[in-house]
Amino acid sequence: MRSYLDLVVPVKRLDRAKSRLVGAADGGIGDRAAHADLVVALALDTITAAANADGVGDVVVVTSDAMLTAVLRTEGIRCVPEAEPGLNEAYRHGASLLGRHVGALQADLPALRSADLSAAVATADGRRAFVADRQGTGTTLLIGAPGEPLDPRFGVGSAEAHRASGAIELTEDWPSLRCDVDTEADLAIAAGLGLGPRTRQRFRLSA
């Protein structure tokens, strides 16, 4: 029987998320409501693409933001609050609520194509593996081995940390899976790949 990968996607509170993107949604004005809408759009486009990927089962979002939780639940997305602060703690908490084959996905991949994620899951083929970001230093996706702890090591230099922990680096060309967004320049690169519909609508405000 086929094994599906369940995914954990943590998202910070909207008043603290993606601070370097403040102003990207409104031509540099920096309105907090516009920024929150952009962060929600990033997450929704990422999660929707992930949920539609072949080989992916459940997707759970770990967040303590009430507004984000309400929006995601309206879209039928399962949300749980943080148990402890911290990105790796959020991944571990989410993983504890899912099945025996779990992965960790970043929430800022607005150009994500379901086919790229499906290909990564298939290439991992049950091995503990990771996909580095566009710069090669961070991690956008960590896939645990079935029945084993996820052991997330996200943070500065996470690609090397995951490599050192024994995870296999997947090096295939999946641009949409590698293009995480921290700055407006990153968002412009993601736009060149093709943004998801919600982010495309929000980012037009700065065009």
From TrEMBL:
> In which domain of life is the source organism classified?
Bacteria
Please report a single Pfam family linked to this protein. Answer: CofC
InterPro entries listed in its UniProt record: CofC, Nucleotide-diphossugar_trans
**Enzyme class (EC, first level):** transferase
Q: Which reaction does it catalyse?
A: phosphoenolpyruvate + GTP + H(+) = enolpyruvoyl-2-diphospho-5'-guanosine + diphosphate
GO terms assigned for molecular function: GTP binding; phospholactate guanylyltransferase activity
Query: What metabolic or biological pathway is this protein involved in?
Result: Cofactor biosynthesis; coenzyme F420 biosynthesis
Q: Where does phosphoenolpyruvate bind?
A: 139, 155, 158
Entry EC no(s): 2.7.7.105
Name of the protein in question: Phosphoenolpyruvate guanylyltransferase
Q: Which organism is it from?
A: Kutzneria kofuensis
